[in-house]
């Protein structure tokens, strides 16, 4: 498998190298996705907010949309680390994921709305029901595994937010962690 040129050119830091080694150890245990996500979250937490985790380039946003920086993709495709940079007001669509995921807020604060899919019944259409609104401040970590991972994330603050995402898939190859975007009616 070849690695995209943009990924090979990515710079790293000593702290990021340590985080990658810690995640590699946790993923290498071969545990079920929910337990893997829990262990990976424990490895990520101590690095959040550290000034030496990301390079200046990996902290850059995009005025048009949130920006994804692939920090690492494991050679066997078992996990990837991504930094998402959110400028004020930027948001995702409502979506779910291709694999387990752990997120940690490195800088700023993120808002999240979680949903449950209600299947169509008696000729009606499927719809989404909002189940929880969460504010994730700097240092917070959460993890999940499909199914049941439908959500929307946004930056409701007046400053940049950066989150670190660790996925159980090769995001450098896939380009995104999103499995499906939902354009169904949603409560709230």
UniProtKB/TrEMBL annotation:
SUPFAM superfamilies: RmlC-like cupins. It holds the Pfam family CDO_I. Coiled coil: none annotated. GO terms for molecular function: dioxygenase activity. Gene3D superfamilies: Jelly Rolls. It comes from the Bacteria. InterPro entries: CDO_1, RmlC-like_jellyroll, RmlC_Cupin_sf. Keywords: Dioxygenase, Iron, Metal-binding, Oxidoreductase. Belongs to the cysteine dioxygenase family. PANTHER family: CYSTEINE DIOXYGENASE (PTHR12918), CYSTEINE DIOXYGENASE TYPE 1 (PTHR12918:SF1). This is Cysteine dioxygenase. It comes from Streptomyces alfalfae.
